[in-house]
Amino acid sequence: QAFLVARSRVFQRALLTGFAILLLMGGIVGMMWSGGVDVIEGRMTGGELGAFVFYAIMVGTAFATLSEVWGDLQRAAGAAERLMELLDETSEIPDTGTQTPASNTALAFKGVHFAYPSRPTHPALSDFTLEIAHGESVALVGPSGAGKSTVFELMLRFYDPIAGAIRFGGADLREMSLDRWRQKIALVPQQPTLFSGDIFYNIAYGANEPTQAAVEAAAQMAHAHEFIQTLPEGYQSHLGAQGVRLSGGQRQRIALARAILSDPELLLLDEATSALDTESEWHVRQALADIIQERTTIIIAHRLSTVINADRIVVMDEGRVIDSGPHDELMTSCELYQRLARLQFQTEQAT
Fold first, then answer.
1. What angle, 0 to 180 degrees and rounded to 10, lies between the N-to-C axes of helices 2-40 and 46-64?
2. Domain boundary at 57, 88, 119, which?
3. Does a structural domain hold residue 181?
4. pLDDT of amino acid 113
5. Of 225, 144, 152, 240, which Cα lies nearest the Cα of 195?
6. Is residue 96 situated within a structural domain?
7. Core-most of 24, 48, 223, 334, by most CB within 10 Å?
8. Residues forming beta bridges with residue 125, ordered by sequence position
9. Which tens digits make up the pLDDT trace of 16-55?
10. What is the DSSP secondary-structure string of 211-244?
11. pLDDT in tens, 241-287
């Protein structure tokens, strides 16, 4: 349908452009014929005819550009229509909660069951139960499809559980204001979203009235201040689309600085170091060691070397918690964790 609409608009624009050119050329031919007759009969000089034709072409060209303006108006109208449709969309996640989330308290998943709407017969989480104390760093590990990313999506309330509940300070997330709940959370994804503005704008995005000193302090905690200072314009250096002028590790540290500036109570790290080289990963890990202090941190990681020092490692498979504990304990008690660690460390040694 979008293709048919686009083709129709191109056809209309082509017709209008062709009609405008035909009208312009026809008018010029008519003027030259009539003016030539007047010059021959002495009613007009050649210079007057030339001047008249020149001005007529200028006016006609101006009118011909109306076809371009009309095409732009059509595109703008179509874009505005799509924007209005998007603004009129009703969220499937009801924001009817009125409670203000508590502070410095535990997060708990109680018997959570969830399946994506596109796959209702394949549960992503089944009877998922997990409690995370305030200030604890918890790593979620497991094979692909274990449900790790689903945990984040439910925490951010992109979806609601089909059964069970997610509670923060004893209150169900559905009873809380969605905006106030999300203000407590900062997410650092594997591929951070950066804008084409300068570094200051990218770090300060989402913060309330950030100052230069606050932005620089956040960058220092994220181990980003050093490389920012080496850029030609420092914090006013533009990054290009999606931060193409920075390396992967530098982009990740900019995203970490943005998360630090928002001072979240809950920090979610989704594969924050999986795509980085060894040196960049070291810088990011150093930054994370400072950031996770005194705040609840949940980490999704396939590279177990990045989460060995977490307070607790939760092993997931097929949407359930298989085992949990520190690294050394899991290496002796959890067969799945042993297999993941063995495969990964063998691969790292081979490379």
1. 170
2. 88
3. yes
4. 94
5. 240
6. no
7. 223
8. 114
9. 777 877 877 887 788 788 888 888 888 878 888 788 878 8
10. -HHHHHHHHHHTT-HHHHHTSTTGGG-B--GGGT
11. 777 778 777 888 888 888 888 888 888 888 766 656 666 667 667 76
